[in-house]
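Pasting two entries for a bug report.
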Amino acid sequence: MRFDILHTTDYRYEEPASEAYIEARLTPPSRPTQKILAHELLFDPDGPSSSYTDYFGNPTSFYSMVKRHERLTVTNRILTETAAPVLPDEALELTVGEARQIFSSVSTDVFDYLRASPAVPMGGEAAQWSRRWLRSDATLREAFGALNGAIHRGFRYVAGSTENWTPLSKIWKARAGVCQDFAHIMISVLRTAGLPARYVCGYIETDPPKGGGRLVGAVATHAWVEALVPGMEWVALDPTNDQWCGERHVAVSFGRDFADATPLRGTFKGSGGQKMTVKVVMKRAA
């Protein structure tokens, strides 16, 4: 499938800002499941920017504006061609117990994705879920699918119900949240079970063709999970939509949790506050 993606983030200040600095992780990688045909990242007002690759391998742009301005807009345009993933069937037929044993011997290579991170604590209720849904004798395919479905059924998607730093303990208690929270829950359970997992930020199709099912969380950036399987391959699952990720998902950035992969992070200098609006449209290209 070929998709046009337009992601616009608009900052409006109550009073003109004298300075602004933004770190953007908005450059999608080319992978077997996605080929980037064109990409353009624009900042308005125009200002100096530089780029680097962060610790997790994300291409990162750093923008600075040191002139007085009343508004700042970041526009990300992507043309991509996606393909259905080819799952590592042999690895997915290994049991959870076998995979856990393999990863325990190579923990230094996947250390960051096996331990707790600032937004993803381990243990507690995640331990109960790991025992229930990630049984040692279950195959990875069965276990991943079961956990994905359990989160989808057990938590309600409520737009705007949480903030970026809402503690995971509150999500467990409320049994409600947004895609970021669902991803964090799944990562916590997987890591508690001794299985490496990482957070993915990206885009999903906004409106499918007539008669198709619309994906939940399509009006902004979306979050899902990649779990590592023996053979060092990542497989992607979307607990918000209870499915293995496919051609309608475009990955942009990765990390231990949302803080590592957040699309935009920055600060400004001014005497008032700011209002941010975000709009994402991912549509099939002609």
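Entry 2 (this is the one that rendered wrong in the viewer):
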Amino acid sequence: VNVCWGAWFGRVLMETGIASTLIRKTVELGGDRPLITIILLNVVTAFIFTAMMGAGPVIAIGVIVLPILMSLGIPKAIAMFTFMGSVSAGMYLNPVLQFSQMRAFLLGADEMPQFSFTWYATHWGYYALAISVVSVSVLTGIYLKFSGGKRHAWAAQTAGAAQTKDAPAIALILPIVPVVLKIAFDFSVIGGFVIAGFAALFICGKMKGTFKENCQLVNKLYYEGVVDTAPLIGFLLTLPMFNTCATYASPYFKVVIGGIMPRSEIVVCVVFAVLTILGFFRGPLTVYGCGAATLGVLSGVGNFSIPFLFCAFTIPSTTVNVGSCITQSWIAWGLAYTKVESRDYL
């Protein structure tokens, strides 16, 4: 249910023009300084994706940001990297796609209530987002420096972009409202989406029709949001079955490979840092692939805390799988859209 309402809110941000207005204002602020524009776009993209999720919103923002980056003369593969990296950075503070989904791998809905999104965000989420944005921006600068000046301007325009009306300035803070309400007041995630979503629709003048027309608009956006996240919902529905099977299989895995699994938190961190590349192609370090089995074994052989395991597996699952892997739906779309070869991108 959180996923559905989060996807609805993402559709609201697109329908009202709030997301596209944020991007355009950022480009204006950056002026004719490409690196400054890239950094600002990375920050704003991460900001947007603390609330948005799914392939639809990533594509909707991508068709705005990628042409801008490439029109600045940035090589297409680097433009892809910096945009997708900033998307995954924002996911670190997404209360639904990041926290609720990852938590489901480790705990039931009512277990460890003290391990809440507020605790996660203040102890780790803010830092993970900031480190990711800084890392992506620094690496982009390095890649540009060593690209040898081989830059090709790309003049593609988003259909109808010239006619798009800017959203009111006050509406531009709404994407962060659900996250702020959750962290500051432990407010309902769905409640935050509903409040910010309807505020966006009213402020941006989308609710001026009859009661029936307004209901149809809300219904349409909800429908489109659910379609955006349909694969994710299917994944979440099968997850409890997978976890139950993993519980039964865990003793056998423990006997076979338990002897070589690290039991120290420091060792786990070092091993994960060195082998993060194994998060690619749904490998053993991403929970959206084989990593769910790795998580089951690791949690069975060591006395690791739930928050530690959560954060350790979040990094490769988010930065590598969500933000970089060509098996991710929006990465595959981006490669086709920008005409970048997967080898060049990787």
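Dev reply: Rendering is fixed now. As a check, the viewer should reflect this: The two ends are 35 Å apart (CA to CA).
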